[in-house]
Design goal:
Elements: E1 9-16, H1 21-32, H2 39-56, E2 65-72, E3 76-82, H3 105-112, E4 115-121, E5 124-132
InterPro entries: Anti-sigma-factor_SerPK, HATPase_C_sf, HATPase_dom
Protein name: ATP-binding protein
Organism: Streptomyces incanus
Length: 142
């Protein structure tokens, strides 16, 4: 393989910030990853990150939107959701007690993903969750 050729494939989807778009994001992820043993985890992660964008940022306002990127390589599946910003706080994992009704979403994402990264910019935040496809002991994901 040429040194500048990649076997990674990347897809993108932009959605208006309506709650029903979360199911569209799930379906889109499921369709792309059909047959992958990580498809269900990826679908759940995209659902949580999309819902967070709508509920906790300007993405859920009248003219808001959120954007998904899905990158697949032989080593990793990377799922990113970018919101429209508009809040003073960045997403973070919170450790809630079992009776809590809110604040568990990113904890669940962190439990499913091998790595979660939050990147903030002037236009919003991107939360990326990575699922390594080869998790055997001693295997290198990238």
């Amino acid at each position: 393989m040429h040194e500048y050729t990649s076997r990674a494939r990347v897809w993108g989807l932009s959605c208006p910030g309506f709650p029903e778009e979360v199911s569209r994001a799930r379906r889109w992820t499921r369709d792309i990853l059909r047959g992958s043993p990580l498809a269900e985890d990826a679908e759940l992660i995209v659902s949580e990150l999309s819902a967070n964008a709508i509920l906790h940022t300007a993405s859920g306002q009248a003219s808001g939107s959120f954007h998904l990127a899905l990158a697949v390589s032989p080593q990793v599946i990377a799922l990113s959701v970018t919101d429209d910003g508009g809040t003073g706080t960045a997403p973070k994992v919170e450790h809630q007690d079992q009776a809590a009704e809110h604040g568990r979403g990113l904890g669940m994402v962190s439990a499913l993903a091998h790595r979660v990264v939050v990147h903030s910019s002037q236009s919003g935040r991107t939360v990326t969750a990575e699922l390594f496809t080869d998790t055997r002991p001693g295997a290198h994901p990238c």
